[in-house]
């Protein structure tokens, strides 16, 4: 896989142009962008950059982080607080993401999206109000393990770290086996539309974008 140096700002502009020109497939009147990557990668910042570039093009955008859709602690920690398999397949409430985020933006949907559901710090529901994304708007979702759940993304971006960089920059090393499993089972670099190498976040490089 060949990479070309790029700045974060230019990456956001190019992706915004690509998304702005895209046509939703069978997903209704809304486009959906996924920014996938481990916590050691700047998925949230990248999502916000893309969103801002889209807003400058006149698009309504909603950014949603999967960190707001964690399951309650009693479910996340059922097998202990450092179980990589539970982290991989049991920490994030994918059912709630389908129901509260993707479902309302399917064909015939209401456009009313819940931006977050659960606060893991206080381990309680956030009680955030619904946000209405008008037809023609763009949803940008960011977080880890996004590409293994058949979420209806129109454009996907994977922020990749080499195993050495991931180990060096991961604050919770017990999660590393979960990312190794993700690489083996999903192969995010193979299925994403765009791959961005972020071993050094100051100097990203990308694979380019076809089409």
Per-chain topology:
Elements: E1 4-5, H1 8-21, E2 31-36, H2 43-56, E3 61-65, H3 73-76, H4 84-90, H5 94-102, E4 112-113, E5 118-119, E6 124-125, E7 131-132, E8 138-143, E9 155-160, H6 163-169, H7 176-185, H8 188-191, E10 194-197, E11 205-206
Parallel strand pairs: 2-8, 2-9, 3-8, 9-10
Antiparallel strand pairs: 1-11, 4-7, 5-6, 10-11
Helix pairs in contact: 1-2, 4-7
Textual characterization of the structure:
The protein is 33% helix and 18% strand. It has helices spanning 8-21, 43-56, 73-76, 84-90, 94-102, 163-169, 176-185, 188-191; strands at residues 4-5, 31-36, 61-65, 112-113, 118-119, 124-125, 131-132, 138-143, 155-160, 194-197, 205-206. The chain is globular, with a radius of gyration of 17 Å. The chain has one domain (4-206): P-loop containing nucleotide triphosphate hydrolases (Rossmann fold, 3-Layer(aba) Sandwich), CATH 3.40.50.300. It has 211 residues and is of the alpha/beta class. α1 (8-21) packs across α2 (43-56). The strands form three sheets. The protein has a seven-stranded mixed sheet with strand order 1-11-10-9-2-8-3. The chain has a two-stranded antiparallel ribbon with strand order 4-7. Strands 5-6 form a two-stranded antiparallel sheet. A hairpin with a 7-residue loop joins β10 (194-197) and β11 (205-206). The longest helix is centred in the N-terminal third of the chain and has 14 residues, at 8-21.
């Amino acid at each position: 896989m060949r990479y070309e140096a790029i700045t974060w700002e230019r990456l956001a502009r190019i992706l915004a142009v690509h998304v702005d020109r895209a046509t939703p497939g069978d997903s209704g009147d809304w486009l959906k962008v996924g920014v996938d990557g481990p916590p050691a990668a700047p998925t949230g910042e990248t999502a916000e950059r893309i969103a801002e570039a889209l807003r400058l093009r006149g698009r309504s955008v909603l950014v949603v982080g999967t960190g707001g859709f964690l399951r309650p602690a009693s479910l996340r920690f059922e097998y202990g607080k450092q179980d990589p398999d539970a982290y991989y397949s049991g920490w994030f409430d994918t059912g709630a993401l389908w129901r509260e985020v993707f479902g309302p933006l399917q064909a015939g949907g209401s456009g009313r999206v819940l931006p977050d559901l659960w606060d893991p710090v206080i381990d309680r529901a956030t009680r955030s109000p619904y946000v209405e994304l008008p037809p023609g708007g763009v949803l940008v979702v960011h977080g880890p393990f996004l590409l293994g759940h058949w979420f209806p993304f129109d454009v996907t971006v994977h922020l990749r770290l080499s195993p050495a960089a991931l180990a060096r920059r991961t604050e919770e090393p017990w999660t590393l086996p979960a990312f190794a499993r993700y690489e083996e089972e999903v192969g995010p670099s193979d299925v994403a539309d765009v791959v961005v190498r972020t071993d050094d976040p100051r100097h990203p490089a990308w694979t380019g974008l076809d089409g």
